[in-house]
Specification:
single chain, alpha/beta, Quinone Oxidoreductase, Chain A, domain 1, Rossmann fold, 2 domains, 6-stranded parallel β-sheet, 12 helices, 18 strands, L-threonine 3-dehydrogenase activity, cytoplasm, NAD(P)-bd_dom_sf, oxidoreductase
Length: about 350
């Protein structure tokens, strides 16, 4: 089968023939329809410091996908051949304290699809049945392919109650855009999102943000005044990993404000801890998705009318992966999807 492979410990990826994986007991073989390009995939392509420490070549990359079930191994129930599915890309041990307590997203032995084991940028992928999410309601395969980052957005956005609240999102990348759509759909009063890319801010307006603010030109304080806010934001969703953005968010939270942090900084940085303490701000770190409460929430949000189509701005055939990766790395658009059936 064709697969996109990190063949050697060096920059670049190669589309090449590899052996089709086989599904064993408790596993599912999936024919891949679409895949989404993630920042993780860009790191692996570029072979940066993180990739050199985390990945062993050769490796089939990728962890965001939709597909059709081609075969189920013995012992698999509730999943049928032909089902449209997505996959949870974090594979857990099942035996640690958190796994046994049903908190699988907190497993300390998590293995990442397309990082610690062969991924989904291929014609076929195998996953444990426990990691397969069957779409019971109709969903476009392009949208199903981005359920992984959509789950990050939902997990972050729904960490705190949103109804009637004023929400600040720092970072209008694909996950920030989806978080803005979720926050507005879930009943937030005002949703403000910041970035320095006018293209991404335009996308934020399309998905429902009340104010898309270019922080290279305006401050968050000015944004508050435009909306008539006098006491700061109730909920913050930090999606950028940018130190300045994080500090600006903390400076604009109300007393008792709550911040969910998904953005991953590249290095340590200082924040005003005195303000965090005296303003009684709650900070919660977010990694991945809750299995599978987040997945259920994603499905019902789409059934309830949430529209993510503006978030996908690039569609390419798998053979065009180089152009697709370049667009994803450009930092000006939304999600980029590869079609493995074209």
């Amino acid at each position: 089968m064709k697969a996109l492979v990190k063949e050697k410990a060096e920059p670049g990826l190669r589309l090449m023939d590899v052996e089709r994986p086989q599904a064993g007991p408790g596993e599912v073989l999936i024919k891949v329809l679409r895949t989404g390009i993630c920042g993780t995939d860009l790191h692996i392509r570029d072979w940066d410091g993180w990739a050199r420490q985390s990945v062993r070549a050769p490796l089939v990359v990728g962890h965001e996908f939709s597909g059709e079930v081609a075969y189920t191994g013995s012992g698999v129930t509730g999943i049928e051949k032909g089902d449209l599915v997505s996959g949870e890309g974090h594979l857990v041990c099942g035996t640690c304290r958190n796994c046994l307590a049903g908190r699988r997203h907190l497993c300390r032995a998590t293995v990442g699809l397309g990082v610690g084991r062969d991924g989904c940028f291929a014609e076929y992928v195998v996953l444990p049945a426990s990691n397969v999410w069957v779409h019971r309601a109709p969903v476009d395969p392009d949208i199903a392919a981005i359920f992984d980052p959509f789950g990050n957005a939902v997990h972050t956005a729904l960490s705190f109650p949103l109804v009637g609240e004023d929400v600040l999102i720092t970072g209008a990348g694909p996950i920030g855009l989806m978080a803005a759509a979720v926050a507005k759909h879930a009943g937030a009063r005002h949703v403000v999102i910041t970035d320095v890319s006018e293209e991404r801010l335009a996308l934020a307006r399309k998905v429902g943000a009340d104010l898309a603010l270019n922080v290279a030109e305006s401050t968050i304080e000015e944004g508050q005044r435009l909306l008539g806010l006098r006491e700061g934001f109730d909920v913050g969703l930090e999606m950028s990993g940018n130190p300045a953005a994080t500090r600006d968010m903390l400076a604009n939270m109300t007393h008792g404000g709550r911040v969910a942090m998904l953005g991953l900084p590249s290095e340590e940085f200082a924040v005003d801890w005195a303000r965090i303490v005296t303003s009684m701000i709650t900070i919660k770190g977010i990694y991945g998705r809750e299995m599978f409460e987040t997945w259920y929430a994603m499905s019902v949000l789409l059934e309830g009318g949430l529209d993510l189509t503006p978030v996908i701005t690039g569609r390419y055939r798998a053979e065009e992966f180089e152009a697709a990766f370049d667009e994803a790395a450009g930092g000006h658009g939304g999600k980029v999807v590869l079609d493995w059936t074209a």
